[in-house]
Amino acid sequence: MAEHHGNVTTEHHVTEVGGVRLAHRVSGPPQAPPLVLLHALGETAADWDAVTPTLAREHRVHALDLRGHGRSDWPGEYSLPLMRDDVRGFLDALELDRVDLVGHSLGGIVAHLLAAEHPRRVAGLVLEDVPAPRPRPATTPVRPDGELPFDWDMVPAVRRQIDTPDPAWLGGLGRITADTLVVAGGPDSPVPQENVAELARRIPRGRLVTLPVGHLVHRSAPTEFTRTVLAFLRSRE
């Protein structure tokens, strides 16, 4: 199936990785540098629709539904390392040796875990309003009413790991070799901005930029977000 947004065609695909079917949307010229987008908790690949047409002018954009989300499988087994390994398996299945990687919130955690575990696979890394993996006060999420575009059982499983992250994850940031842009959402974001700044400091080639529009930077300010991301990606080519 394909959709058309202006001059950009988006194809819908499903790739099996380790027995889990991962849905993904592909846009942009086939020979362009690959760019992989990872969404936030409870979102899907469609969350990137506001920025994909612009990013796809210069990149072959692959936007995934992480396991337990959207059209990907909801296997009932969830963790951040499993999501990290899914993405690595996805790169293997599509024979994408080295990619640029953009992750928002939950997707940003998955992205930096992948960049730390497999640094050679990630050339450029963009982490959108992602804090350093430090413990935070736990809260009990309440299930919204009605049908959800994600598996609710995934939420408490992943939230536990975000609230009490593996201590090794903080040290793992130092193993990231990718040029890294950390995009902070500023004071209107619920994410502690000092922790976002710490993430940028701990990544050896990290730099921080603030677009003060809150946590949903790419949705609230798509033009500024794409301009900032593309300028960063061009600067490291």
What does this structure look like?
Strands 1-2-3-5-4-6-7-8-9 form a nine-stranded mixed sheet, with helices on both faces. Helix content is 31%, strand content 24%. The protein has 237 residues and is of the alpha/beta class. The chain is globular and about 45 Å long. Helix 2 packs across helix 3 (106-117). The chain has a single domain, classed as Alpha/Beta hydrolase fold, catalytic domain (Rossmann fold).
What's the helix and strand layout?
Blueprint: E1 2-5, E2 8-17, E3 20-27, E4 34-38, H1 52-55, E5 60-64, H2 80-93, E6 99-104, H3 106-117, E7 122-128, H4 154-163, H5 167-172, E8 179-184, H6 193-202, E9 206-210, H7 217-220, H8 222-235
Parallel strand pairs: 4-5, 4-6, 6-7, 7-8, 8-9
Antiparallel strand pairs: 1-2, 2-3, 3-5
